[in-house]
Amino acid sequence: MKPAFNLTGILCVICAFMLVMPDSYASDRQVMPGVEVLRERGFSGLVGKRVGLVTNPSGVDRHLRSTIDILYNAPGVELVALFGPEHGVRGDVYAGGKVSDSRDPLTGLPVYSLYGPTRKPAPEMLDGIDVMVYDIQDTGARSYTFISTLGLVMEACAEKDIEVMVLDRPNPLGGNKIEGSYVEPGYFSFVSQYRIPYIYGLTVGELAMLINEEGLNRGQTGEQDAARCRLTVIPMKGWHRDMLYADTGLPWVLPSPNIPADDSPQYYCAAGICGELYGFLNIGIGYTLPFQVFAEEWIDAETLKKTLDGYGIPGVAFRTVYFKPLSGRSAGRLVRGVQYFFTDYEAAPVTLVQFYVMQAVASLYPDRKPFEAASGVGLFDKVCGSSYIRTVFGKRYMVEDIEEFWNKDVSAFRRLASRYHLYK
Fold this sequence. Notes:
Low-confidence stretches: 1-28
Distance between the termini: 52 Å
Number of strands: 10
CATH topology of the largest domain: Rossmann fold
Structural class: alpha/beta
Number of helices: 14
Shape: globular
Strand content: 5-15%
CATH class of the largest domain: Alpha Beta
Helix content: 25-40%
Order of helices and strands: HHHEHEEEEHEHEHEHEEHHHHHH
């Protein structure tokens, strides 16, 4: 005879386990972001000071309270100005839209735009500020503009001897994955602000330390900046380098409209470079799968999938997909192609996925070769950080022709970046 199922007993055991569970066990499953650590420390470093804040909707605690409101109501802290990167401090500006100077409707504070004619804070914007705080969830990709904003804020604050405080957050790509070559002279831009790989494997706080000490913020001129700001990083608690965002226990608040989920940064890195070739392929922008598909009206989905499967790309799997985009060039028309998945993220050559797709399309559709069928080649080069990828890859459209170049700086950067690791 089977024993009776004792739900009450099981619940008691679970509760008892939770009561005696060591703090280390809990912390492994619950990361405390920098803003919560700052609050736990009684806002040390900000009390009695006039504070500026660079943030957007992703700057929240685990209960979704905005860093704006946390600092505005913090005892002894005088929050005096907000600074809006791409998409604005409250996230009400769509991708690429210009952010205007305004007033925050909830606090009445002035909001200065850092995405538009002014990307580096003008000296008068910083008047009266003692400490500039930065709190934005990043993607871990070089081309994502928030880290460029961070560097320009650090420059401007260095010039006025204003301290910068970075409230650290998880790198959603983890702290181990590094891919892509350095930006070359002539290709520094707002989407390639630093001489770092495309996937750089650092938290935003670690990156801030690195660019501040190493002088890697070369801006659009390619000239090294000597000025260093007075930098403080408020580290997280409980984060370690092999964590992806899903491991942190934190809610994901999309930092921009096309990064809706905690794994979206992985797909952004695997398709976003290709997406700069406007008119070539639909990568899911304007549909429910941003950066997760490669499709067009003229593609035979089964043939494309078979070709990509034949490459044996480690850690990546494909399935056929058919959908009608809700907006964009092909709005309302059926497109065909592939959706891809990371079955082993650590093994996957994330950034090369899009180049394998371009290789397959060029071989299957010789009249649709990427650099001949698309516009946006200049921005493609800027995001790659070099024209080498386009000119060499464009000769035969074979990944093997660029793979060595694309990975040539990874080992050197891994050694350099390790000096600035705050987490093991």
